[in-house]
Model the fold of this input.
Amino acid sequence: MIDPANKRDEVADLLIVDGKVAPSSQLSTLNSQPDEIDAGNLIVCPGLIDIHVHLREPGFGHKETIESGARAAAAGGFTTVVCMPNTSPVADSPSTIAWIKDRAAAVACVHVLPTGAISKNLAGEELSPISSLAQAGVVAITDDGHCVQNHELMRRAVEYACMVGIPVLDECQDYNLVGRGVVNEGYWSTLLGLPGWPAAGEEVIVMRNILLAELCDHQIHCLHLTTAGSVRLLREARSRGVKVSGEVCPHHIALTDEAIQNFDTNYKMNPPLRAQADVDALLEGIADGTLSILCSDHAPHADFEKEVEFDAAPFGIIGLETELGLFLDLLVHKHRKIDIVRLIKMYTVEPARLLRINAGTLSIGAPADVTLIDPDLEWTVRIDKFESASRNSPFGGWKLKGRAVRTIVEGKTVWKL
Ligand SMILES: [Zn+2]
Done:
């Protein structure tokens, strides 16, 4: 059992009674013998949390639904996912948040926590009703998919978020610098004649967020960071105690921009795949704790949407069912940058602390959200077997080591291998 929240890493039994973690002393007082799961040779840990997922509903049910996205999460070992607000309508009003929560309660097999938009319709011009969104139950505000360019508006958003006690998640992208960019600006963009997306287009906004987190003394979390410069900026700011954090997606360490040379749109990401030096910096950032959260940026798109010219295709890939395998394989087994305890912490304690939610722990009385992991299981990614409604992944056929084998939400098994 690995439970970083309680600093536990030991061989032990886990007792679940009425959907909650119970003390093992309660075993003798139970009226009937409980069901037993043999988790020998497996890791039992708090249910994993993915704080960056696109479930596409309302509005884009042909890409993914809350129901299918939740099943994909369960199949990836996740018991809680945080969904992004770039839906149709945009999640910028309490009524849309209520719809998402109702829908999730009716059909989702894992916990679905909505975020609300920072700006109305993600237009970056006028703030959403942030305190009403907080009352409606959002765990954070973000314009993910977009980035508020007006620093003053962003400052007000951070101040409101501070007042209502939720973090701000930001996709770091300066529109003027990024322009029409679709791939990393560098050797491959030049060679292939594709519009480049410079690293500075990300780093300028990371710097902005550091300054605003400091000015407002409130948490800003930088979504899916990709460049060496972002890691350097974040490292310096965090060493001074600034309330800023960052996350990494598996594709940004598994691949470089070299992968785009056959124009396969399943390698078109936002932000784009970067150069090897950036990948190395991300790995160092993960190793030294500068980057504290792992996530998928699960971004489902239908085949007909992705099967167009590279320039015209939408950004993003699905990730819920491959992220744990990729991170275990790359971070723990291949590059040995972190141990599995740290990896579990980045998927449990860290996101729960950022979002201030009661999850990511096996404390007595906590909801019995549990993931069973076989860290040494070798498997091959089969996209046709995915629970997600979309198939846009570049990882089909990859051989990985380590995956979740059972996912338990409030004491009930919602998925098993
Ligand atoms: Zn996203």
User: Anything to note?
Assistant: The chain has a mean pLDDT of 96. The longest strand covers residues 370-380. The CA atoms of residues 82 and 253 lie 22 Å apart.
